[in-house]
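Hi L.,

You mentioned the student needs an example of a multi-chain input paired with its predicted structure. This one should do, with 225 residues in total across all chains.
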Amino acid sequence: KAGVTQTPRYLIKTRGQQVTLSCSPISGHRSVSWYQQTPGQGLQFLFEYFSETQRNKGNFPGRFSGRQFSNSRSEMNVSTLELGDSALYLCASSLISNSYNEQFFGPGTRLTVL
Amino acid sequence: DQQVKQNSPSLSVQEGRISILNCDYTNSMFDYFLWYKKYPAEGPTFLISISSIKDKNEDGRFTVFLNKSAKHLSLHIVPSQPGDSAVYFCAARFGNEKLTFGTGTRLTIIP
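Structure written out for the whole complex:
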């Protein structure tokens, strides 16, 4: 069974630009969660989508948004990039919502903002 | 406000010895705790969890201890093996709320 895939793996942008990251969950998984990992803050929850609906949202500004498609694939968008947005962005999928011990992570997208 | 804290950014342990990773939390409403392991260039993988109604959970070489009065969680790895070298994150949640992660501890097993 293929794992969670994230594209692209690496991305370099400049301040003020916007970026879209993609996540394909494990086949059959309907929940996708997004996290931001930075050295000082660990993993911080961004949002969770289940059956195309946002179920949960973390404490991030409105520049961070996401969506989920009918095939459970999810995208995350960050607009007006800031230097502090440089991080590893991880997505995780699970069969059902809030199933955190059954959650499988992708390898992440490393975003660098210059 | 860091509700889940891992105060040791790194830890080195001799192969075969016990590794003890610690985690403190401030929110007494947390009722479920998890440990994840992360290798470089990979996403975290779930390791072990514990409900707040228990004080210990064991899975092979991994044991998690929960001390609710001290709001303290620890992960014991016995015996430590070179493949255990990774970053370990503890996480906590309340009900169906989102997971709150610690900042991670990098464990290095010395052969």
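You could point out the following to them. Chain A touches chain B through 25 residues (CB under 8 Å). The mean pLDDT of chain A is 93.

Best wishes,
N.
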